Give the backbone structure.
Amino acid sequence: MKQVSIEEVNNNLSGYLQIAEKEYVIITRNGIPAGILIGLEDSEDWWEELLLREPRFQERVARARQSLREGKGISIEKLREKYGI
């Protein structure tokens, strides 16, 4: 993880995007973290990032996890066994 000031990012955005493909770049304002630059290696990464931040998706994941804790649903292991994966 690399930490740089917003001024540095403004001066060399292209360079920091390349770095962000390999590690997170924490952007600071007055020495305080203000954001994270995340590089995308391909277009599929874009959709994955959007999905992970979608509140409705997060709610579905939380409900599914709760169902599993309550003994409902099927584990990934049983699902693989069922379909021979």
The chain has two domains: 2-37, 54-83. The chain is about 55% helix and 20% strand. The chain has a mean pLDDT of 91.
